Amino acid sequence: QHPFDQEATAALKRLPGLEAAVRSFIPIVEDTIYLDNIANAVLVGPHQLQSIHKSLLQACAILDMQPPEVYVRQNPTPNAYTLAVSGKKPFIVLHSSLIDLMSPAELQAVIAHELGHLKCEHGIWITAANVLTSGLARSAFGLGSVVAEALGLRRLLQRWRLTAELSCDRAALLVAQDVNVVVSTLLKLVGGSVRNADELSVHEFLKQAKAYDLASRTRLGRLLRSTVMAEATHPLPVIRAQELDTWSRSPQYLGVLKRGAELVDAGPVAPPPPVAR
């Protein structure tokens, strides 16, 4: 988990009653989404889209978590998402176009990214932060603006959303255990297609990320970067790629791998990597 992600979560957990209040209405949302998924998508299982099911089980074994339901929906926009709450019906939705675009190993990395959201329960805390920073909620619950400002929630919420994605990229890397696989998923989502997949270069994309980092250090670059990121829901792909590349060489990541054991193969997805526990 990214350090800032941990810090923001801890700050919200210190507010008495907040987590319980948010969790109280999650089951209603969860039931609504469940009915939609079960009616309009394909539920993955041991006898339905078996390769995706095996990939899910392998990723869950590495991240030490129970497998959620996975649904595949017909959609031309490559995407995956989750409610990011470990409730009674945790789920992940994969778009059909995402499956077409990714290799089996890359698709597993995407699944692991969504598992990261579930494991961290980002849905709970982003919802909680949104509640605290809304004027209506502060009036209704007697939470004066001084509370939100004391925690820096207005300013921190956007940055937190971005670093939450970086935490989940780390989950993807722990499962893939190959930074090229995870960066390749970002590269394909930015500018990939089934037709040009063989011509995409992770190495060149990482060079591009470094070029962006240098360009954004100028006064104008910093201004443009902050303007773009103010409304973003995800970090820029080049930033995510650079963060992954840096963390893949860090003592923290390498230490996790050294403590790992051989993965009990849940199905042939790629050459079996060691478990990181």
Written account of the structure:
With 277 residues, the protein is an alpha+beta fold. It has one domain (3-275). The protein has 14 helices and six strands. The strands form two sheets. It has a four-stranded mixed sheet, sandwiched between helices. Strands 5-6 form a two-stranded antiparallel sheet. α6 (122-133) packs antiparallel against α9 (153-176). The protein is globular and about 45 Å long. It starts with a helix and ends with a strand. Residues 261-277 have low confidence and may be disordered.
Reconstruct the topology from this structure.
Blueprint: H1 3-13, H2 18-40, E1 42-43, H3 50-63, E2 69-73, E3 80-81, E4 91-95, H4 96-101, H5 104-120, H6 122-133, H7 135-141, H8 145-151, H9 153-176, H10 179-191, H11 202-215, H12 219-230, H13 237-247, H14 251-258, E5 261-262, E6 274-275
Parallel strand pairs: 2-4
Antiparallel strand pairs: 1-2, 3-4, 5-6
